[in-house]
Design brief:
mainly alpha; 3-stranded antiparallel sheet; 3 strands; 63% helix
Length: 177
Amino acid sequence: MSETPPSLLGLTTYLLSKTGKAARSRLAARLAERDLRLWHMAVLSALVDFGPHVQRELASRLGIDRSDMVKIVDDLAVAGLVDRARDTADRRRVTVMTTRAGRAMLADLQAEALVVQRELLAPLTGHEQGQLAALLRRVHDHVHEGARRTAAKSLSDSPSPVRQTLPGDHSRGSAAS
């Protein structure tokens, strides 16, 4: 029998981690029954919520490595859940969009996620579940806004690239001005 040390139970970060791991595991098991993973659901969600995306931009939006995104989109395309189209002007650009089957699958996956959510949050009243959701959203927004600020700060702190001005190039003014 495993007993959690009380000092860990006093850490909200520990509780968030363990509860999040349990939620992720339960949802992943339900998705695996359909031969899907959490990233498949994330991609379908982004495409339904935000519309068609260039594959590279979709990877950036979701924080997925571009080579991993190729595999995820391939899986979804083989299953008939997304379509891909090459840009006629730039053949390197691939736009991804959901199919009718993809939108239906996402609705099913969201229903599965709600079942897992109800199971996990069963000890809480409806009001408490709403409070928890609101508080977690605030923490989520704070964490992700902090990451955006940090990224923006590191960009502003890095030195600007030096642009050499060639003789006769007056597009940005000359070095002597």
